[in-house]
Specification:
This protein has 264 residues and is α/β, with parallel strands linked by helices. The protein folds into two domains: 49 residues; 200 residues, 3-Layer(aba) Sandwich (Rossmann fold). The strands form two sheets. A seven-stranded mixed beta sheet has the order 5-4-3-6-7-8-9. Strands 1-2 form a two-stranded antiparallel sheet. The longest helix has 47 residues. The radius of gyration is 27 Å and the shape is globular. The N and C termini lie far apart (90 Å). The protein binds S-adenosyl-L-homocysteine. S-adenosyl-L-homocysteine binds next to strand 2, helix 5 and strand 4.
Length: 264
Amino acid sequence: MNSSEKHIVNITHLDLLVKRTRYQFLVVLSFFIALSLFSGEVCYCFSLKGDSAGYEKLRYEMVEKQIAARGIKDGNVLRAMRNVPRHLFVSERRRGSAYGDFPLPIGYGQTISQPFIVALMTELLEPGKDHIALEVGTGSGYQAAVLSEIVKEVYTIEIIPPLGRAAEKRLKELAYKNVTVKVGDGYYGWEEYGPFDCIVVTAASDHIPPPLIKQLKIGGKMAIPVGRPFLVQHLMLVERSEHGDIQTRSISPVTFVPFRREWK
Ligand code: SAH
C-alpha cells in the first residue's frame, strides 16, 4: 500500500467513526427526549391525582394551621379538606397560592372561598354519609368536592355557564362521581332532587330564598351568607326543626361575592 492509499483508508475510517458517533448521539438524544416526554406524562398523571411538587404536604399544613387550629373538629371535614386537591381547582398560575389562607380569583369576577370558610360552612351542615346536599354557587367546584367526600350525593348549581361547565369537567376528570352540576339560577333550588339534608349557598343574598327553605328536610341545615353586596354580611345557619319550624342563627361576619339572578 503506497502512502496515498494509506491516506484514503484513514479517511474512510475517520468517516465511519464520525458516522457512528453521530448515530450514537442520535440514539442517546432520542432516549432523553422519550424520557422527558414520559416523565412529563407521569407528572401530569400525578398532578391530576393531586400530588406532585409537595402539594400534599402544603394541604396537610393548611388543615393543621388554618382549620384545626381555629376550632374545626369534625373528623370527616378535616379528612375531606386533606383529600381534595385544592390546587387543581384554580388556574395553573395560581396553584402555588392554593393552600394560602385567603380566597382566590377563579375568573368572571368570582372567587374560590378561603379554605377555613369552606371548612366552617361544611361543619355547620353536620353532613353525614347518607345525606343529600345542595350547593348554590358551584364556582370552581371545590366546595362541592369537599362535601362529596362526606355525603352520598351533591347537587350543585352555577349561574355563570362557562364556570359551571368548567367545574363539571374538572369534577369528572378528578372522578367525583357523586356530584351533579347544573347551570341555572340557584334561587329556586333543585326541586327534583330535594328535599335536602344540607344546603350551602356560597354567594351573599340580601334574603334567604324561600324555595331553598322549602327544600330543606326536617332536621336539615342550610349555611348561607346574608347581607348586601360589598357590605358586612353574616354567615347564617338555618335549621328546620323536628316540628318543621325554622330557626336561624348568625355565626360570623363574612365577605362573599353577590348572589345574582342573571348573568350576561
Ligand atoms: N363554592 C365555590 C365558590 C364560588 S363563588 C367554590 O368552591 O369555588 C360563588 C359562585 O356563586 C359564583 O361562581 C357565582 O357565579 C355563583 N352564583 C351567584 N349567584 C348565583 C345563583 N343565583 N345561582 C347559582 N350560582 C350563583
